[in-house]
Recover the amino acids of this structure.
């Protein structure tokens, strides 16, 4: 066998191994690349809270109606509460029904927090609903929902 032929076969093997490695990586990541649905968000809520009814009000969800860049969408959640030992917000859960993982973030509060408010930036894969659920110290649940239209950095629709 000539040295040229050996080098060509070696390069072919390396390329085949690279392709096989990429295929394996894609197969491993593919299930996570699927986008959550409204039903999956409902399932997550059921896991967290059972079938408890959720009231409206008390939560102010501040999101842009149109996100020019889905990679950095600002979100602020404020929950109306006196934040006393007898009446406070225990937690706020934020979900997005079009992301690979529906639960985006959970904030935990105590009466010492003084105010049930938090801000962050999140990544949205496409136009979708963002849902916030506040759990109060007495067990009551409140929810708010807003749709964000993503124009760049997501699927554009």
């Amino acid at each position: 066998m000539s040295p040229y032929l050996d080098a060509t076969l070696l390069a072919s093997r390396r390329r085949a191994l690279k392709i096989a490695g990429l295929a394996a990586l894609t197969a491993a990541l593919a299930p996570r690349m699927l986008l959550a649905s409204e039903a999956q968000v409902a399932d997550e809520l059921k896991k967290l809270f059972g079938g408890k009814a959720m009231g409206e009000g008390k939560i102010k969800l501040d999101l842009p109606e149109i996100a020019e860049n889905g990679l950095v969408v600002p979100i602020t959640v404020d929950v109306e509460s006196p934040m006393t030992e007898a009446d406070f917000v225990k937690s706020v859960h934020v979900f997005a029904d079009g992301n690979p993982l529906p639960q985006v973030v959970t904030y935990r509060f105590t009466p010492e927090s003084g105010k049930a408010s938090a801000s962050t930036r999140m990544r949205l894969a496409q136009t979708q609903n963002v849902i916030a659920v506040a759990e109060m110290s007495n067990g009551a649940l409140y929810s708010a929902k807003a749709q964000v239209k993503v124009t760049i950095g997501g699927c554009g629709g």
Q: What stands out?
A: The longest helix spans residues 3-33. The chain has two helices and nine strands.
